From TrEMBL:
Residues 12-120 form the GtrA/DPMS transmembrane domain. It comes from the Bacteria. This is Putative flippase GtrA. Keywords: Membrane, Transmembrane, Transmembrane helix. It is found in: Membrane. It comes from Saccharopolyspora gloriosae. One of its GO terms (cellular component) is plasma membrane.
Length: 133
């Protein structure tokens, strides 16, 4: 079985998501002490996205990083950024949940859609033509 078939990519994606969540939380925790909460969240998301790209190429989908997939990868996480930021705003502003807890919950809410989009971007980026093989 290749790295990009069957159920293992989803498990690997979840593992990479755990690492990314730790990266996001670490950056967020450091920055939220000196910047507004939403700015810290956006900076943490961008940092975690770079880690996510490399780990998902290598461990989740077994594809080589490429300029093409790198250029498309941030777009694939636009939905993650929008959904995560909206969830963060709702959790902290409406529900009154502590921002340190809300940032982790916001990441979990956005994860399923991110897997599907990430798979499409990285597999197509590795093939270079966008057509199934």
């Amino acid at each position: 079985m290749s790295a990009n078939t069957g159920g293992r990519p989803l498990l690997r994606f979840a593992g990479v998501g755990g690492v990314n969540t730790a990266v996001h939380y670490g950056v967020y925790s450091g920055l939220s002490a000196v910047t507004p909460v939403l700015s810290a969240h956006v900076a943490a998301t961008v940092t975690a996205m770079g880690c996510s790209y490399l780990l998902n190429c290598r461990f989740t989908f077994g594809v080589a990083p490429s300029a093409r997939s790198l250029l498309w990868y941030p777009l694939s996480h636009l939905g993650d950024l929008v959904a995560g930021t909206a969830a963060m705003a709702a959790l902290t502003g409406v529900a009154g949940i502590d921002a340190r807890v809300a940032t982790v919950a916001a990441g979990v809410v956005a994860m399923p859609a991110t897997f599907l989009i990430t798979r499409a971007v990285l597999i197509r980026g590795a093939r270079g033509d966008g057509r199934p093989r």
